[in-house]
Amino acid sequence: MGQGEAETGPRGLGRPAATARSALNRLGEEATAEETCNAFVMVPVGTDPDTCRDLVLEVQQALKSEAVSAGKTVGEFFPGHPMQGIHRTGFRPLAGPHPVLAVRAMVITDILFLTLPGIPAAERLPCLKVWHSRFGEVTGGPWAQLHADALAAAEKELDDR
Questions:
Q1: Cα–Cα–Cα angle for 28, 143, 128, rounded to 5 degrees
Q2: Of 12, 6, 106, which Cα lies nearest the Cα of 64?
Q3: Nearest Cα to Cα of residue 128 among 26, 39, 145, 141
Q4: Which of 31, 91, 94, 99 gets the highest tally of CB atoms within 10 A of its CB?
Q5: What does the angle CA 119 – CA 114 – CA 14 come to, to the nearest 5 degrees?
Q6: Tens-digit pLDDT profile for residues 65-103
Q7: What is the pTM of this model?
Q8: How far apart are CA 98 and CA 44, in angstroms?
């Protein structure tokens, strides 16, 4: 648990963050093809939906870098999630009926989450390097080009500073 985690959040971030971190650790060091289907899902209960959503978002943000650096991901789902679908802007893939935090091994399509424009270049670069270390040999589909474009854009943003 990081400094100050226990004091933040509506009921404290310490326990949910520790539970999510434990799930990250249980996924192991290197995910095999079979293990990419494994996921841990946390559903906070016992309080109002807005508070649950805020807790899910806090834990996700607190553990995102740690998860990605280990080749894993921590995702958030909640009612009204604003993220649009890739092919249809009306589709909301991260919207769900209740706030949920999901922990799983990184998959090739996670490049889409690692290249979001709201992520500062200094945070994107290490994430892109981890993605490339896991999936850089894949040449099919749009993934390698998405990575190359995102890497070039992040490096340019940092150079322009």
A1: 55
A2: 106
A3: 145
A4: 99
A5: 75
A6: 899 998 899 999 999 998 888 778 888 889 999 999 999
A7: 0.80
A8: 9
